[in-house]
């Protein structure tokens, strides 16, 4: 298992290397070039020229790239042209918010999606099954930002059950040692702060989790239906395995393999969706910051954040591959 | 949606496994068939027959047709011209007139007729959806064809590029592309098209590789046909089924993603622009005064995406030889 993890981590290096070349060229392709990226759109020609000389942007491309890569490796991702803070710092400040949000969204998607798909498969062809199929189809086609709107309108504006924006109430005074607000509240025993932060998470997480939920439910249903009719299930039944044990140990476990793949694929969806959901709920995570960076043409932030997100995405997929080994012992032997 | 390293997924939406069926032109094999009518019929004729029996396909086709008709006939159907603000005089800071005889769905904040804007918006969505999918299809076909036809290092290089593009979640890729081009509808088309390129490229390469191993290709080669002839007139046509299915599903994703990019403001335009995503952005501030301004455009996006998804999935089933005859 350790070898698998190391192998996969090693494979990550060429990907990131290639991506860094693309991102490097991308900023070089901008109208105005990298100086504009650093100084912002409103830079004077003199400032651009000074900066070009200072940073060696007048030198050959490959030399520039090597220098830039060297800086990245030392953790220097540049400075946000908007906030004037280091990109790495901006990312680390906001990352916990997005992680909190995506984890809760994933918990909702997996926690509801798998049981729903499983129950639909067991009662195949009945009302519950048809309902699940239709609901998951709608879940797949409804735009996440529209769903965020609906939830916000219904539960925040109309019913007032949940706050409509932000990560915590403006009046709340809380300390944040980790940046994960719910966790912070629990650690510092500020229960009201933890509860407040959780309430702020519910609606965005529901919106963000809806599409993964629909997809997971669909895949679980299809997978369980397929496994239920497999020969080994019939054999197990014939050998007298009791129904609950059969369902738990044989059907569910075998059906989970494609579901695990699907869950891994949802991480990209969640990170993309976070840009939209965070924007609707004014949730101060990497998504909304990235959306703002697009408008301010804050290229250092775009470059850095996209690289970070690619790493997170790749690590999430690695986690999925590892989970195969846990779900299916055959996978362990094969590697 | 997404992003999937191998499956197609939209950030905002539709993530579906890509078509797996590799249809062949010979008569359907195996499985209990519904009579001899399938015998010798072309794959497309069989598919059409199967589509007509599938309620999902019919609902999807009706939605798609309605959407296309509304988009094409917008100048006839819309009560007011594009960008017109007929009710400007009736807007008050705290009051936006609702549905009336003059304005069937009411007005928006700037005095535009909501119904007219929705109809013109259909046109914008169709245009962006079709153009970007065409762009993605052409780009992907070119790359996929290159990789699938030549193999070797061309294949490796192309697929590495595809992997790289898929290593960034799709909406983020679209956002970065649009950021370079600037804020305009063209930027949205190009951004969504670029995101689709790797998905089509991988799909086409995969199906072409599978087809290349088929007996009929060997037969054509042994008859002395050149590699180009075999690729263009035998392998390619037989690889198209999954690509067409994917394109239909991609239209759903494209409509949603176009709205998402416009919603983020990358489509340019002003709050009065008749584009569904842009209308949702503008409606954000009016949620308490006039929620219908958000509900209608959102509903239109969802229904359109639903139509393309239903039809695309039905088409995939219909073209899949493994489920043929069921």
Task: Produce the secondary structure layout.
The complex is a heterodimer of chains A (335) and B (326).
Chain A: H1 2-28, H2 33-39, H3 45-55, H4 61-73, H5 87-122, H6 127-141, H7 144-158, H8 181-187, H9 191-228, H10 231-238, H11 243-280, H12 286-295, H13 299-327, H14 329-334
Chain B: E1 8-9, E2 15-16, H1 43-52, H2 55-72, H3 74-77, H4 114-150, H5 152-166, H6 170-181, H7 185-212, H8 215-222, H9 227-263, H10 276-283, H11 292-319
Antiparallel strand pairs in B: 1-2
Written account of the structure:
The complex is a heterodimer of chains A (335) and B (326). Chain A is globular and about 80 Å long. The mean pLDDT of chain A is 80. Chain A has 14 helices and no strands. Chain A starts with a helix and ends with a helix. With 335 residues, chain A is an all-alpha fold. In chain A, helix 1 packs antiparallel against helix 13, helix 7 packs across helix 9 (191-228) and helix 11 (243-280) packs parallel to helix 12 (286-295). Chain B is mainly alpha-helical. Helices cover 63% and strands 1% of the residues of chain B. Chain B is built from 11 helices and 2 strands, in the order ββααααααααααα. Chain B has a two-stranded antiparallel ribbon. In chain B, strand 1 (8-9) and strand 2 (15-16) form a beta hairpin. In chain B, helix 4 packs parallel to helix 7 (185-212), helix 5 (152-166) packs across helix 7 (185-212) and helix 9 (227-263) packs antiparallel against helix 11. The model of chain B is unreliable at 1-38 (pLDDT under 50). Chains A and B meet through helix 1, helix 6, helix 7, helix 11 and helix 12 of A and strand 2, helix 5, helix 6, helix 9 and helix 11 of B.
Brief descriptors of the model:
heterodimer, A: 335 residues, mainly alpha, 78% helix, globular, B: 326 residues, two-stranded antiparallel sheet, 11 helices, 2 strands, elongated, disordered N terminus
